[in-house]
Amino acid sequence: MHEDVLTNQTIVRFEDGKLIEKKDHYVTEFPLTIMVNGEEFATVICSPNHMEELTLGFLASEGAILRSDDLKSIQIDDSKGFAHVELTKSLGERFEYSTKRMIASCCGKSREFYFQNDAAVAKTSMSNIELNPQQVLNMMTRIQSASEVFKQTGGLHNAAISDGDTFFEHRQDIGRHNALDKLYGYCIERHIPVRNKVLIFSGRISSEILIKAAKIGVGVILSKSAPTTLAITLAQDLNITAIGFIRDGNFNIYSHPERIKIAET
């Protein structure tokens, strides 16, 4: 499996009034073309690790895989940049529009692709999870501690999924959607229920990230940054607790605060 997330190269840096040569790290962009039943479904620009998880999570979040028995096989050919997926069913006419579309790592130019299936795949959360404030703070601390590649390059989005206690899985990618899809794929492969889990995200909670959380099916999303107004509206409608500005022992709850409990003294 291709795992070269970082590239090392000699650069010229201006420092202290001089031009000097030095080694630098920066993130690798990798185009992964997803073939479904022999047909091109999409090309995802990603970080080249956990690509089977990415493929599985992406197809599930787009509604191409609705149940685990829809999947027959996944084979990653990282030397050529292909993911070959065989399903036990035909995709049908609903997915004809997706042929030969590129999903950009920055997500901005991919809105047309994502939004066509959002209404059919995004779910109103049925999560019963309850968290105390210290669990919220601990999860944000843990994702920041895990983000070693980001500290070296500043070029990756970080995401994690947790139950607030012992379970914690972390992924990084140049694409913010990709990081979440890798986590979703991880849970699907291992048959880990996601309903009472929490997504922890390094960036702001945009409407697209909120919809991705709804597609995965979690009830809580955390961020050290702020949500957008549309994200808050969607979180209210989809029964998702959105928490932002988790910094210095404090945070803001923007929707469904009933899931955060403070012990009575």
What does the model show?
Keywords: Cytoplasm, Molybdenum cofactor biosynthesis. The protein has 265 residues and is α/β, with parallel strands linked by helices. The protein folds into 2 domains: 30-119, Ubiquitin-like (UB roll); 133-255, Cytidine Deaminase, domain 2 (3-Layer(aba) Sandwich). It is built from 7 helices and 13 strands. The chain has helices at residues 51-61, 111-121, 133-146, 148-153, 176-189, 207-216, 229-237; strands spanning 6-15, 18-27, 30-36, 39-46, 71-77, 82-87, 101-103, 157-162, 168-173, 198-201, 220-223, 241-247, 250-253. It has a 6-stranded mixed sheet, sandwiched between helices. Strands 5-6-3-4-7 form a 5-stranded mixed sheet, covered by helices on one side. Strand 3 (30-36) and strand 4 (39-46) form a beta hairpin. The radius of gyration is 19 Å and the shape is flat. Mean pLDDT is 84; it is low at 96-100 and 105-115.
Task: Please render the helix and strand layout as text.
Layout: E1 6-15, E2 18-27, E3 30-36, E4 39-46, H1 51-61, E5 71-77, E6 82-87, E7 101-103, H2 111-121, H3 133-146, H4 148-153, E8 157-162, E9 168-173, H5 176-189, E10 198-201, H6 207-216, E11 220-223, H7 229-237, E12 241-247, E13 250-253
Parallel strand pairs: 3-6, 4-7, 10-11, 11-12
Antiparallel strand pairs: 1-2, 3-4, 5-6, 8-9, 8-10, 12-13
Helix pairs in contact: 1-5, 2-6, 5-6, 6-7
Q: Tell me the fraction of residues in β-strands, as a range.
A: 25-35%
Q: Would you report the number of β strands?
A: 13
Class by SSE composition: alpha/beta
User: Please, what is the average pLDDT?
Assistant: 84
Our Rg estimate from Cα atoms comes to 19 Å
Query: How many helices in DSSP terms?
Result: 7
Count of discrete domains: 2
Any guess at the CATH architecture of the largest domain?
3-Layer(aba) Sandwich
CATH topology of the largest domain: Cytidine Deaminase, domain 2
Q: Largest sheet at a glance? A: 6 strands, mixed
CATH superfamily of the largest domain: Cytidine Deaminase, domain 2
Flag low-confidence runs: 96-100, 105-115
Shape: flat
**Strand line-up across the major sheet:** 9-8-10-11-12-13
Q: Could you name the CATH class of the largest domain?
A: Alpha Beta
* N-to-C SSE string, H for helix and E for strand: EEEEHEEEHHHEEHEHEHEE
Distance between the termini: 52 Å
Organism: Staphylococcus saprophyticus subsp. saprophyticus (strain ATCC 15305 / DSM 20229 / NCIMB 8711 / NCTC 7292 / S-41)
Keywords: Cytoplasm, Molybdenum cofactor biosynthesis
Active site: 107
GO molecular function: sulfur carrier activity; sulfurtransferase activity
